Structures are given as structure tokens and as C-alpha cells.
Amino acid sequence: MRRAIQSHEAWIWGGSLVLTVLTRQIAFGLVPLALAHGRWQRQQWEQRLVEHSNRWEQQWERWLVEHSNRWEQQWRIQQHQIFQRVEQHLQSVQPTPAPLVHSPQPAVDAQVTQLLAEVGSLAEQVKQLQEQPRSHLSIQQQMAPLVQRLHLLQEDWQRLKLQALPHLEETQQQLQKQLNQVQSQIDKFQQQLEKLQQQQAAVSSQPCQDSIPPRRAGVGVFIDGANLHASARDLGVSLDYESLIPRLLGSSAKRAQIHFYSGWDPKDPQQKAFHEYLEQLGFHLHRKPVVHFANGGSKANMDGEMIVDMLVSRYGRVILLSGDGDFLRALQHLQSQGVQVEVAAFGQHTQWEMRRQFPFVELSRMLDRGREVIPLPAKQVPSA
Fold first, then answer.
1. Angle between helices 136-162 and 169-205 (to 10 degrees)
2. How confident is the model at residue 101 (pLDDT cuts 50, 70, 90)?
3. What was the pLDDT predicted at 380?
4. What dihedral angle (degrees, nearest 10) is formed by the CA atoms of 47, 53, 58, 61?
5. Fewest C-beta in 10 Å: which of 138, 232, 263, 350?
6. Which of 353, 343, 349 shows the shortest CA–CA distance to 235?
7. pLDDT-derived band at 25, boundaries 50, 70, 90
8. Residue of 222, 224, 223, 221 whose CA lies nearest to 378
9. Superfamily assignment of 219-381 in CATH?
10. Cβ proximity of 314 and 337 under 8 Å
11. Residue 376's closest CA among 225, 222, 223?
12. Among positive and negative, which fits the CA dihedral 210, 216, 217, 221?
């Protein structure tokens, strides 16, 4: 190998010398030397890489052999310790004597006696239920636990039959006879109950005059005092109910019922006098005292009461004096039930949907200006 390399180097040096002489340029003569030097360096690197890879592979195999031996020794030590602990535990446990086998005859006798007593009690309950007159719903409620108890007794009876003894044959026959009697009584009773239910269903399916709701009639006026008085005070319009209601209802005023809803302050004499004045006009007054909170707020909201009263009323025509949009859904429901719904309020303080969906009456055209409106408690005052 070395001879081949030396002859190869001799050829390179000779070629370089020849090129230098022929071209008379040293640079051309150095080209073979540069090419030979690069090839020599690559051979050196390849040789080093092979040496290092062999060395790393030998070290890795040596490390694996050493650690595998160590792990095997540790596992054998732990296994030996586990075996020692198991042997110590087995030596410490004392063998328990085998339980004595008793004859099942006394236990079976007790179970049969108890089962006979329960069957007799069940038969007595069924007999009492037949003799006492009750509604079919109460009978059905009391029958359910009896039937369930009968099923449990039959399950107990099947278990006793599996462990039957020769001396209990007569008792088993007696128990089976009683169970059959109770079952037949319950079957007859359930048949009677089903007939009663069918008769009542036939009666309930017939039309009844009392179940037909009364026909809607009359006019109901529902006034939201807090909303109406606040709007009137803001617009500077006076509220004269004595003249407003006849102008609003016309010929229907005589058969109309006026409902006025408002919160009130028991300590305010002006509000008390105003409410007495409305009662003299024939208004149905609905009011609740103002609730004051510790944070400075207050509440006297009657919207819920108004909505409920409107929905349960039987008026053929309903007139709402309020611009509050909280009543929109209630008015829509009344209209779907065939009620003639109208809204009378101040247009500037009325929700747009209420003005669009229902006939709207502008109250400012029916009222005068100048006289002061009595202030009523607001529905809700936020905390300070």
C-alpha cells in the first residue's frame, strides 16, 4: 500500500515538474499538487472516522454489558426479598378452623312461619281495601304496594321450594293455597278498578256546560298610574279622569270597569286624598306601599299585577292607559284570544311597537295644560 502511494506521489511530483518546464509557469505546475493534497486530506478524514466509530462501538458494547449485569443482580436481590416476605407472612397466618355445618331445618321453619304470617296480613289488607269505599285514585295508590309485596312473597316462596324439606310438605301446600287466594283477590279487585276507570273516562269525555268558559263581554280599562302621571308631568299636561274617561269610552263608559294601579306612600296625605277621589269616581283601586331599601333605592312596581289581571279577565275589549313596553306580550296574547285591544297614552312616551300593532289614542289631544299633576311613586328608583 505504501509503495503504491509513494509511486503515485512520484508521478504527481514528476507531472508538476514537467508542466512547470513546458509552461514556464509555476502556477500550472502546482495544480496537480493541490489536487493531490485535497485527496490526501479526504483519505485522512475517512481513516479517522473509521477509527473513532470502532472505538465508540466498543465503548457502547462494554457499557451495555456492565449495566445489564448490574440490573440482573439488583432484580435477583429484590426477588429474593419478596420471596422472604411472602414466606414470613404465610408463617404468621394461623389456619382458621372449618365452620360447623348446621342443619337448615330450623332456619327454613322460621322462614316458612314468617312467610305465612305475611301472607295472612296481606290478605287482610286486601279485604279491608275492598270493604272501605274510596275514590279509584286512592285505591290505585294503595294497591300498588300490595301487588309489589305479593311479588316479593312469591319470590321468597320460590326460594323456599328450592331448599324444601320432607317435613314441610304440608306447610308448603298450605302456603301455596293462601298465595293463590291472595292473588285471585287482587286480580278481581284490579278488574273492578279498571271498570270504574272506564266508566269515569266515559263520563268525563261528555261535554259539560260548566267546563265551557264564559263569553267575553264588557270593557276593561287598565291604568298604569306611575307611567301615566310621570309622562303627564314631563309634558306639562293635567290629568282630569272625571272628563277623560267619558271622552275616551264614549257610549261604552256605562258598562266599563276602570282599574287603577299605583304604588303609594302611606305618609303622603296628597296621595291618600287622590286615591279617595278615584274611588268616588267608581275606579277599582289596586295599590301597594313603596318599599325602601338600605342603599337609598325604592320600588313600587305594579306591572306584574296588571298583566295577571288583564290575562285572567273576561272583557271583550281592553284599553291600556300606559306607554310601557312591558305590556306588549300580554296585549298580543289577548288579541290572539279575540279581545279588542287599544292603547291610550302619550305618543312621545310610548313604545313604537305598541303604537304600531294596536289602535292608538293620543291622550294629549284630550287633555288641557296648566293644572299640576299629583306625583305618584315611581316603579323603581335606583340606589344612590
1. 160
2. very low
3. 78
4. -160
5. 138
6. 349
7. low
8. 224
9. 5'-nuclease (3.40.50.1010)
10. no
11. 225
12. positive
